[in-house]
Write a structure and sequence with these properties.
Layout lengths: L1 H24 L6 H17 L6 E8 L21 H34 L2 E4 L5 E5 L6 E3 L2 E5 H6 L2 H12 L2 H14 L4 H23 L5 H12 L9 E2 L2 H12 L14 H12 L1 E8 L5 E6 L3 E5 L3 E7 L15 H10 L15 H11 L4 H6 L3 E9 L5 E8 L3 H12 L7 E3 L2 E3 L1 E9 L7 E2 L5 E5 L2 E3 L12 E7 L7 E7 L4
Parallel strand pairs: 1-7, 3-5, 8-10, 17-20
Antiparallel strand pairs: 2-3, 4-5, 4-6, 9-10, 11-12, 11-15, 13-14, 15-16, 17-18, 19-20
Length: about 500
């Protein structure tokens, strides 16, 4: 709701700016049709422009995830809370005002519909229906209906009928419905109410122009307006004669026609629209992580290194003589293999790997397949096992290991289930599949029976490259914290809080 209120506030500012332009540039001109379009466009475009966000992309290439140096600060997780008035009282006040304003509009429509239904109908040849009522109301029009009291209908004043027909032919009722509905969303904005009032005045100017264009005497018509404005009654949703616009209407009839060159004032709208779009624009920083160096090994006669570009290099290795046996590489221990594999895999990429069906499907798979080991259950062992693995380029799972151990049987069960997972959708960097490290926490907890909880952890704490409990933070002297940074988790992977301490000599 708060996001909508921010959006509505932007709309209010735009309406105020565009309406100010109309008042300064066009309100005294006789371009009634142009002025009507400007006010309608102001009320509609102001609601659309905040949704038109021009996004500019800025690409930044980094070699690794940046760290934030916090000196001797202790690691804390703080959730920012919003004040009560901002997320409760303000939305409530806005909704009350909107409901009251919209309710008043709907009530006015209902009153007009009831009055038309209970009136005496007299269809005309041009499709207009004259509704005669015994109530004392000033003549007004709504959609294709003209409502008059019985006395006015008996007079059969052609000027009054021509005026109301002008409203109907120009479809002023639809303008009123649109603006009144939008006013409900901007009930707090004085500029919207003034725009609404000026649009009604323009409707009257256009209808007056339609009367005078048929050859009616201007003086007699002005006198007629004065007498009809003294009548009682009126409906906010309908077009009718009122005291509020009468003086301006008579003055506008006597006003000299504006020159066509004055329409050039509309060009002032272009910089206003441009500035509004520029203010609403945003810059998105695309972070691209450099891939590890690719090495191509080729046999030759001399040792040499040929560098090609900033990242690729070709290593030429001296070929063993024919009478000598080629020395086979020494098989590395498993721990060294895992460490080497993880160094060649990414921690964060543009598109992180994903379990088929997404994070919720991963949680469901683990919950259904992890079984509480009998040995651990008998011993009453419980805790959180954190496992890491690599999602290969083809989506297969390799190098699964326990980053934080609880009990050998629990560790073995976690690794068993991870090894049984189906192929993932691989991670991608620069549009190409890459190897990515992934972390999954599994909580084993005894609650009167076998119970394994697999939940989405908010974060994983890592101190000096090792997964740790939150309680271990308190054992670190504040002066020993060298740096701390947070890696944002994606696709269900929890974020990491990584703390580096000063090495003790």
């Amino acid at each position: 709701m708060l996001d909508f209120l921010i959006y509505d506030a932007k709309v209010a500012v735009l309406i105020a700016v565009f309406y100010m332009f109309y008042r300064l540039m066009l309100s005294k001109e006789t371009f009634h049709r142009v002025n009507r379009v400007v006010l309608l466009a102001t009320s509609v475009v102001s609601f659309i422009m905040p949704l038109c966000v021009i996004t500019m992309h800025e690409t930044v290439t980094v070699a690794a995830v940046p760290t934030v140096d916090v000196g001797e600060m202790q690691a804390m997780v703080v959730e920012e809370s919003q004040p009560l008035w901002l997320h409760t009282l303000l939305p409530t006040l806005f909704i009350i005002g909107m409901v009251l304003t919209l309710g008043y509009t709907l009530l006015s429509v209902l009153r007009v519909v009831v009055l038309i239904r209970n009136s005496e109908h007299h269809p005309q040849e041009d499709g207009v229906v004259v509704c005669v009522t015994d109530r004392q109301v000033s003549p007004f029009s709504w959609m294709h209906y003209i409502v008059m009291n019985r006395e006015d209908y008996a007079e059969h004043n052609e000027a009054v009928l021509a005026h109301e027909r002008g409203h109907i032919s120009l479809r002023h009722s639809w303008d009123v419905l649109l603006v009144d509905t939008l006013t409900a969303l901007q009930w707090f904005n004085p500029a919207m109410w003034m725009l609404r009032q000026d649009l009604r005045a323009i409707h009257e100017y256009e209808a007056d122009g339609a009367v005078l264009s048929q050859g009616f005497n201007a003086r007699q018509y002005q006198y007629l307006l004065i007498t009809k404005a003294a009548s009682i009654g009126g409906y906010s949703i309908a077009n009718g004669i009122s005291h509020s616009t009468l003086k301006n209407r008579i003055r506008m009839m006597l006003h000299k026609k504006s020159q066509g060159s004055h329409l050039l004032k509309l060009l002032a709208l272009l910089p206003i629209v441009g500035i509004a779009l520029a203010i609403n624009a945003e810059t998105v920083t695309d972070v691209v992580y450099q891939q590890p160096q690719k090495k191509i090994i080729k046999k030759g006669k001399k040792n040499a290194t040929l560098k090609i570009g900033p990242v690729n290099e070709i290593v030429v290795v001296e070929q063993a003589p024919a009478n000598q046996k080629e020395v086979k590489p020494v098989e590395m221990p498993n721990a060294m293999k895992v460490e080497k594999a993880e160094k060649e895999a990414f921690d964060v990429v543009e598109q992180m790997p994903q379990f088929p069906g997404g994070p919720s499907a991963l949680m469901q798979f683990l919950s259904q397949n992890v079984k509480y080991p009998v040995e651990a259950h008998k011993a009453g062992v419980e805790g959180r096992v954190i496992a890491t693995f690599i999602v290969e380029k083809d989506g297969s799972i390799t190098n699964a290991r326990i980053a934080r151990s609880v009990h050998p049987s629990l560790d073995a069960e976690a690794l068993r289930v991870i090894g049984s997972m189906p192929n993932w959708m691989p991670g991608k960097q620069n549009g190409e599949p890459v190897r990515v490290k992934y972390t999954v926490p599994i909580t084993f907890k005894l609650q009167g029976g076998n119970d394994v909880k697999v939940k989405e952890e908010k974060y994983i704490l890592e101190i000096d490259g090792k997964v740790a409990d939150d309680t271990e933070i308190g054992s670190i002297p504040p002066g020993d914290i060298q740096s701390m940074h947070i890696e944002k988790g994606e696709n269900g992977q929890p974020k990491k809080i990584i703390i580096t301490t000063k090495k003790k000599e």
